[in-house]
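Many introductory courses stop at the sequence. We go one step further.
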Amino acid sequence: MSGGALHVHQATVGELQTAASTVLAPLAVTAPRALTSTGVEAGAFRADIDAAVVGRAAVARIRGSGHLVQRSARAISSTDPELLKITLHRSPEPAAADQGGTQSRAQSGDFVVFDMTRPYRLAVADGCDVMAVGISRTELGRHADTVAARAARRLPADTGAQAVLAAFLQGLGRHLDELAGPAQAHAGDALVSLLLAAFTETEPGRMDTATELVDRIRVYVLANISDPSLCVDSVAAAHGISARQLHRLFHHTGIPFAAWLRGERLGRVRRDLLDPAQDGRTTAAVAARWGLHDPRHLARALKSQYGTTARDLRRER
């Protein structure tokens, strides 16, 4: 889905299949036909679809008749994007999820994850109300494996970061039409951060793998990214490890910690420089907001990262 919002009222099964396949990847959508005693179809399938790109993710809300969504092995192609699909169920009846031999029944208020690179089935009953987020595995980095490992398992959204994410998604579902430009980008950043928080939240003492620790560090850094003192030493100390251990952890991700942090900061600076609402702020003030206080370093970094200057970015609008 390249951009803009999609709204289809009283969609047919075919229209739902087309929309779902456009927003995510090729999917098959079918619906049971309820027949009367005379053999006449009792009720036509109808669904309301609202979808939009929010930052780096596709978000959709589907409400209406019961249906079955399937991602078959035949439909999966090497050219398809490697997506994870996170669903939030607010339907009155349980939804049946099945992927890779794992099965669950999602109650109202549950999250269920699907790995779009593998076949899966999701059956929802009449009166369904489902929020779906499609996000590239690369956007979640190594955390993608942590999320994918939960495939087809229900995750209640009644406490902690899961509850915050659920409330955020419900708000998005009601206001997809109102997000555009910088607001959409900001909402997208928040969505990615909340996804990381919700799916890396663990009990104290249970975070025992390198992947989980990297994910927790990323969440911590993104929450404190405006702090100019944020660095290898401070982040390592906050997580009870040495700077050498932190370097080693990020070495395995394929991008050094300092480079990752710089990229996150520069991405936010670039977004603000492209935002007309920030015209009243100097480039230095924009950069300082994201923890960058050296104008000369900023100029070199922007040129290296994006091939342009701060002044040129503001002219691009």
